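Example 3.2
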Amino acid sequence: MPNIKQAGKRARQALVRRASNRSTKSEIATARRIFVTAVESKDKAKAMKEFSAFCSMLDKSAKRGIVKNNTADRRKARAAAMLAKLA
């Protein structure tokens, strides 16, 4: 138990933020799985749509600091390479 009132508040805030960040990371993982499934089924139109959604999620989460910028860029580059192989 925190001895200082502010430390208690920080602990409560950390719980809420951790839950939110985990939820967002889970959504990113789901978007990636949907994208990979579309690529494996060789459905180019769906893959393009899912690639856009996946990249958008990564950019937003990087902007908010949920994932680091380089991590988001690396994941987008790997997804773009998968999409390029499909073409």
